Amino acid sequence: MKNHHYYCLVFLKQNNNFSFHMSEFFCWTDKPKMTIDIISKVRNKADPAGDSILLSCSYLGEMTDEEFTGGRQFEKDWFVCIGEGQRMGGE
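Above: the chain's sequence. Below: its structure in token form.
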């Protein structure tokens, strides 16, 4: 199994009623770096309107898919795969 570099990105968006909503997304890359392009792609999935801001970006480490998931299935709406030609998971 191939190792990937995993990240957790958290976005914050202000709602119409002045409350806030936080979205958490996980992604992986083939190389140990996070770029503006990757952050933009994840943000577009988190908030297609583009009104959210990046609150944090955490590096979780280099591991296989099995190590990251522990064998569990995750909902594709909050997991974004970026790598091998910048493909997006679930699309």
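The chain has a mean pLDDT of 78.
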